[in-house]
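Thanks for the sequence, V.! I ran Bifunctional chorismate mutase/prephenate dehydratase right away. Repeating your input here for the record:
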Amino acid sequence: MSSELDRLRESIDAIDDRILAALNERAKLARTIGTLKVGHAYRPEREAKVLTRIKGANAGPLADETVAYLFREIMSACLALERPISVAYLGPKGTFSEAAAKKHFGLAADAVAAPSIDEVFREVEARAADFGIVPVENSTEGAVGRSLDLMPNTPMKVCGEVVLRIHHHLMSKSAKDFASVRRVFSHSQSLAQCHEWLNTNIPDAERIAVSSNAEAARRAADEVNAAAVAGDMAAEHYGHTILASNIEDEPNNTTRFLILGDYEPTPCGRDKTSLVLSARNRAGAVYEMLTPFATRGVSMTKFESRPSRVALWDYLFFVDIEGHRTDANVAAALEEVQRIAGYMKVLGSYPAAVL
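Predicted structure:
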């Protein structure tokens, strides 16, 4: 048994040596490619193609998602040889926005915390960060209004998306059990997403909404018998003990984030296009405005209305469609919509989330 174990371990060591050599060979090629590029080294459409190809080629026993995560980190490390990509996110450290940034750009990226969604936009627009990541919708609570409100006026493009499964945990530094929790801090959306669990398990605890889940973890760490509803990263960063895991009321609670930057991805074969529209003030205007998508065979995956903030009862419509703006059917539909709509702005075409 001992000799067989030694033999297997030697085989693993030999494979590890080959993996290490292959990784460094890949890194050298990536660095050479970086010297030939003009502008961004980061190409979301190229990375989406790589991850899709790797998942398709995977024969197991590792799961497709596991393999994709490994290659995401390899690409992140190779990009950082040139210069780490800087990514602004809604801070402080430990938020789901930071987790989304790490998921999309990898651990080698330079994640920069911003105090508000407005500041994330400003960091990218001022070129203080290469990219920004903002939440736009949650499967339970719907649209993130502030992100949508800022989209029409930014000169930046939407160049990617991240879909993050959200797990909320009840955590505390001082409370040892549910009975001793007197106050619960969290973001208002997270409190809403865990409403029934909190009602059932700690109905008498005061609930206090703060700017982010990470801020909730920070506040709870400084107060006796206080707890926070937040994610794994916040618990680790602020030294909390998790009292209860996965307390979200909906088992498939997911948040979608968009990547902002001064870059327009080319088609990758599985793309989305986001745009904002306003309808003319006449009967049937919204139906007329959306009809070209149906007649051109373009699938609409999102339709969200927001007050325009320009005139009373005037609305903007945020629309996601499948396909790239340069695809023939999408381009034809957009051209027709442009003529019909009172206002249209294409926010960007980008690869659909792979991970």
